[in-house]
Amino acid sequence: MKKNDTLLDSAGPNTRLAHVGNDPHAYHGFVNPPVVHASTVLFPNAEAMEKRSQPYTYGTRATPTTDALCAAFDDLEGSAGTILVPSGLAAISVPFLAYLSAGDHALIVDSVYTPCRNFCNTMLTRLGVEVEYYDPEIGAGIEALIRPNTKLVHTEAPGSNTFEMQDIRAIADAAHKHDIVVTMDNTWATPLYFRPLDFGVDVSIHATTKYPSGHSDIVMGSVSANAKHWPKLEEARITLGICGAPDDAYQILRGLRTMGIRLDHHQKSTFEIARWLETRDEVSRVLHPGLPSFPGHEIWKRDFKGASGIFSFILKADAENMKARAHAFLDALTFFGLGYSWGGYESLALQVNLSDRTICKAPTDGAVIRLQIGLEDVADLKKDIEAGFAAVAAL
Ligand SMILES: *Cc1c(COP(=O)(O)O)cnc(C)c1O
């Protein structure tokens, strides 16, 4: 289907991003795939219909547009199959529903994306799954938490908001001794900076809302599984009637083409700002796994090929003035918008709420401020942050 698979396999990341997915010559030579809007797909005769003997059978199953994006993800992740879902959160909940049943036990990293915890503590618990949170730095020690009914270990590295690293290989090895499926939310690194399946993970999850989209205008998720775990994932998608919309799939594929150069820029600017923040008196600590001062740095250096554009820092404050200082800082920002999500071209800031944590509790040395460094010029972003510090000092 693709141009020349062997050539592509040995190509660099940006070459791959430019050529993965669709084959232009499969559709009249147009460089991009068509956006196919479909429910009904017609069959030429009753026998073809009975045997479903054609590539496309119904709009919810697949279209040339969604197939192009899934093929791109399979190439980037090294997976056997990928499903598209309507959001990054659904990219977590759908595989959990695929692999877990009543009576099962699931181990979830404590630094997990907050809405994942909400799904686990409400719907998953209601369906009879026992959920237990574990320390992100547990490594091979996860084996001590495994019970006879443990069926899934969920990882996310770096962790949401506080960026704890995980020894993914050690966790996957321990889980696989007990035939447990290992899932990983790989949104932060994207497949360019970390390939979970190469480290033993079975199922890699992305909020493609973030860097693959890159423009803050799409919500979509992807789930990519290895050969062993692909059939159950595909079956769950079909059973639940979940599918990716064609216009969104098209936009995500479009975003992937430039993701490498965007990430490169995000990475450079983010390192520059993170290192500068480490020198500031207003800052207690910078939570960025690419900094040698960060506790998980050695794992990041060993396993990851790069760092994206989101990290946090701790704005010095006492318990009593934490909120006032955080609000003064945030309200003085101009280029940094106050908003959720990330991965777009524009910078964002927020005060992190860690009240849901049971193991990795909120730091006490100040307010945790999360920054997404966009594609703006670093000098302008620094000026903006300085204005934030000045507002804090003026309190
Ligand atoms: C944003 C995010 C999600 C959810 O993505 P949505 O498309 O916003 O639902 C999942 N995991 C991580 C790590 C995220 O940052």
From TrEMBL:
Its cofactor is pyridoxal 5'-phosphate. One of its GO terms (molecular function) is cysteine-S-conjugate beta-lyase activity. Keywords: Lyase, Pyridoxal phosphate. CDD domains: CGS_like (cd00614). GO terms for biological process: L-cysteine catabolic process to pyruvate; transsulfuration. InterPro entries: Cys/Met-Metab_PyrdxlP-dep_enz, Cys_b_lyase_bac, PyrdxlP-dep_Trfase, PyrdxlP-dep_Trfase_major, PyrdxlP-dep_Trfase_small. It catalyses: L,L-cystathionine + H2O = L-homocysteine + pyruvate + NH4(+). The modification N6-(pyridoxal phosphate)lysine is found at K210. Belongs to the trans-sulfuration enzymes family. This is Cystathionine beta-lyase. The lineage of its organism: Bacteria, Pseudomonadati, Pseudomonadota, Alphaproteobacteria, Hyphomicrobiales.
